[in-house]
Amino acid sequence: MKDLTDIPALMHDIGARAKAAARDLAFAPSESKRTALIEAAEAVWANRATLIEANAKDLDYGRDKGLSDAMMDRLLLNEDRIRGIVDGLRAVAEQTDPVGAVITEWDRPSGLHIKRVRTPLGVIGVIYESRPNVTADAGALCLKAGNAVILRGGSESFHSSSAIHACLVEGLRKAGLPEDAIQLVPTRDREAVSEMLTMTDFIDVIVPRGGKGLVGLVQREARVPVFAHLEGIVHIYVDADADPVKALNVVLNAKTRRTGICGAAECLLIHKDVVGTIGQGVIKALLKAGVEVRADETLRAIDGTVAASEDDWGCEYLDSIIAAKVVDDLDAAIAHINTYSSNHTDCILTENDRSADRFFERIDSAILMRNASTQFADGGEFGMGAEIGIATGKMHARGPVGAEQLTSFKYIVTGDGTTRT
């Protein structure tokens, strides 16, 4: 039985076992990794009643903590969402193994042949908040890319994550892969997070997935490199040349489909020329859908809106709230976004190709969209099977982080008795 009170010793043990597992995974056969994920998917579905029972304990815990409705929605597991976890595991299983893939190759006049090939990062630490499905997504993607992973889920999802983790371990066992390849920190103690952030001997990269507080903590205190998944301050700009039907459908979906995810729209910008037409229609539809619209002075004329404050620009609500503002033109929208964006996802609604091109050129968010709901800002929707997060930094992993982004590379140099003059 592990001593869960001695956190430094516990984390040292987890780290050492992860590093040993990573050495084996680096050359694990593709078929073994595929088998592990298929078997894990089977285990998740077979144990769905157990997962729902475990999730009920987490929901009780969340209610006792006073979590918002949106956060409770993020925490919830039901049969449909468990089916989504199963589908995600299967999708990752069937993807092409990135390890060993040749990125590029070339010959040199010296006679050398040089290849750059994908290689695992090693050990990845994933620190995440309430969504229990991240346990499956992160475990699957790290395994596919040949990495060992240490998962530290949020205290709210402790029981759900533990139940999902047991299914992943069952998959590893049936595939003959080291069970230490996917480890879940078995305590809610926050000291475990602090330990992970300094485990440079064992962890090669940290991926934080959660709110601004968590990501800020990781960025301040980590001695391990970080793939930052910052908050989703997502903007939608309704251009003068927007199609009214598309605008209505996209904005409603982007805000209301699921308000508690990082791809949910948080700020609506409307060109002054379409305020009385498209703008009015969209805002009235949001209000009818139960969304609180925090509006600037111009839009306050629409019945049911409330006054926006300066704090509403650049706010991630993760709730049925949206900030709304009128802008003079496309460049004013771009300026607003560049001032308040978190570089996650931003969208333009327009039928004008030149406007779209200017928007894409002048905004440097990880994901830019045109005439599409920002709820598509998701690795699964990008064809990655799942994602470990949306990286908003400038490192090699940017946007949805799938298996391929969880690799580095090495050079393979071949000669024929070649010497340098």
CATH superfamily of the largest domain: Aldehyde Dehydrogenase, Chain A, domain 1
Strand content: 15-25%
CATH class of the largest domain: Alpha Beta
- Name the poorly predicted regions: none
CATH topology of the largest domain: Aldehyde Dehydrogenase, Chain A, domain 1
- How does the major sheet shape up? 7 strands, parallel
Structural class from helices and strands? alpha/beta
Q: What distance separates the N and C termini?
A: 61 Å
Kindly describe this structure:
This protein is of the alpha/beta class and 421 residues long. The protein folds into 2 domains: 7-229 and 401-414, Aldehyde Dehydrogenase, Chain A, domain 1; 234-376, 3-Layer(aba) Sandwich (Aldehyde Dehydrogenase, Chain A, domain 2). It has helices at residues 7-25, 30-46, 48-65, 69-75, 79-94, 133-144, 158-175, 191-197, 212-221, 244-256, 275-288, 330-340, 353-362; strands at 102-107, 113-120, 123-128, 148-152, 182-184, 205-209, 234-238, 265-271, 292-295, 306-307, 321-327, 345-349, 367-370, 390-391, 399-400, 407-414. Strands 10-9-11-8-7-12-13 form a 7-stranded parallel β-sheet, sandwiched between helices. A 4-stranded parallel β-sheet has the order 5-4-3-6, with helices on both faces. Strands 1-2-16 form a 3-stranded antiparallel β-sheet, with no helix packed on it. Helix 6 (133-144) links the parallel strand 3 and strand 4. 49% of the residues are buried.
